[in-house]
Design goal:
Blueprint lengths: L5 E6 L5 H13 L3 E6 L9 H8 L10 H6 L2 H6 L3 E7 L1 H9 L5 H8 L4 E5 L3 H5 L1 H12 L3 E2 L3 E4 L5 E5 L3 H12 L8 E6 L3 E5 L2 E4 L5 H12 L3 E6 L11 E4 L3 H11 L4 E4 L6 E3 L19 E3 L3 H6 L8 E8 L3 H12 L3 E6 L11 E2 L1 E5 L2 E4 L3 E2 H17 L1
Bound molecules: cytidine-5'-triphosphate.
Length: about 400
């Protein structure tokens, strides 16, 4: 719920601006007060009249409108909100924000503010993939700007790929997380999830089995308690949850880099099934069957991300949670793993095929910490996630 929360909504000039009208409705019906700002380009797509009618507030448009300056200067306008949402965020707005330009009301507000900013990008897929946009994305993320989307799909321009603005309810979820008054609000938590794929050649890879279901459920549960979640995911079967910052990776090395970039965090939950090995050098051409027999594959060891983070002397998260997927002597092996990796808690589970846990909807875990061994009954992965999130909240509150 967003009762009494103030949101400054900057609407950029893109076809997705029509979705922002629905976004205003969704926000106001949840009790938020929405102050709309239209860029000049946005006025080509939606009218100030419809925006104001839905928001029930004046729409701000022009930096040099003296009446507005007399009523509420742009500095005050930018700071009186709990959150600034830029939806749609065009490539142009991202460029301005990353470069620190301030030549119209929207960009000036974004420069003048000390309020958290959430961007919902929308643009053509080539524009999103363009190195300049990706550079701007990296810069803005480093500056602390949060992103929701873009989603992948058919685009108004007839192309397919990432670039569609997130749906209004996804944006609402991303708005609710940092504004919620839950026990984890103000906490930043990293979750790794899914498998990693280690290429052998352009068409083959090695991987661990993992649907990503448990990691996704944990990220969702942490976010529901108000945490700001960075979700670093390999190519999982389950789509990532709404309202979290999603960083998609393919390999263990990329996951390791993404984890490093996400630090510092208050807690890290390492639910990913990281491949322990990669090819010493992946072939850039498809390996062909030959009369010389089987190909010789030379392996190299991947970094142990959990161990690396657990062993950090500076900037170690206050709580580090690892997983142990075992097929026998679960508690014994997982306790040894906890000691070896140096994490605070290990959630161990029996993944022998007979349990049906791998790829299934339920999990039976044992939580091992310095306090001992806690056996949880078999339950839905969502409930395991809720219980873990609750326990993390209690521990971080101490
Ligand atoms: N993990 C990691 N980086 C790796 C391997 C594992 O961060 N390169 C993390 C996993 O996310 C999980 C924990 O370590 O939280 C345990 O993973 P698991 O695959 O069970 O352990 P292994 O290190 O592979 O140990 P073993 O092969 O002895 O089972």
């Amino acid at each position: 719920m967003l009762a009494s929360k103030r949101i400054l909504l900057i609407i950029g000039g893109g076809i997705a601006a029509y979705k922002s009208l629905d976004l205003i409705r969704r926000l106001t019906e949840r009790g938020a007060a929405v102050t709309p700002v239209l860029t000049r380009a946005a006025e080509e797509f939606v009218t100030p009249l419809s925006v104001s009618a839905l928001a029930g507030e004046k729409t701000y448009r022009d930096l040099f409108d003296l009446t507005d300056e007399a009523e509420m200067g742009h500095i005050q306008l930018s700071r009186s909100a709990d959150l600034i949402v830029v939806a749609p965020t065009t490539a142009d707005l991202m460029g301005k924000m990353a470069a620190g330009l301030a030549n119209d009301l929207a960009s000036t507000l974004l420069m003048a503010t000390d309020t958290p900013v959430l961007c919902a990008p929308a643009m053509n897929v080539r524009m999103w993939d363009h190195p300049a946009t990706q550079r701007n994305l990296a810069q803005l993320t480093a500056d602390g700007v949060r992103f929701v989307g873009p989603n992948e799909g058919d685009m108004a321009c007839g192309e397919y790929g990432p670039g569609r603005m997130s749906e209004p309810l996804e944006i609402v979820a991303a708005i609710e997380a940092p504004l919620s008054d839950g026990p984890l609000s103000g906490k930043r938590i990293l979750v790794t999830s899914g498998p990693t794929h280690e290429p052998i050649d352009p068409v083959r890879y090695i991987a661990n089995r993992s649907s990503g279901a448990q990691g996704t459920a944990i990220a969702r549960a942490l976010s529901a308690l108000g945490a700001e979640v960075v979700f670093v995911t390999g190519p999982a079967e389950v789509p990532p949850p709404d309202g979290v910052e999603v960083v998609r990776v393919e390999t263990a090395l990329q996951m390791s880099d993404a984890v490093e970039a996400a630090l510092p965090v208050d807690a890290g939950v390492f639910a990913a099934a990281v491949a322990d090995w990669r090819m010493a050098s992946a072939s850039d051409r498809k390996l062909k069957k030959s009369r010389d027999g089987l190909p010789e594959l030379e392996f190299a060891e991947n970094p142990d991300i959990l161990k690396r983070v657990s062993g950090m002397t500076r900037g170690r998260p206050g709580l580090v949670v690892g997983f142990a997927a075992e097929t026998d002597n679960v508690v014994e092996h997982a306790s040894a793993k906890r000691a070896r990796k140096g994490c605070d808690w290990i959630l161990a589970n029996d993944v022998s095929p007979s349990t049906g846990i791998m790829g299934g909807s339920e999990n039976a875990v044992v939580l091992i910490s310095e306090d001992g061994v806690e056996k949880w009954p078999r339950m839905d992965k969502g409930l395991v996630a809720n219980r873990l999130a609750q326990k993390i909240a209690e521990t971080l509150a101490r």
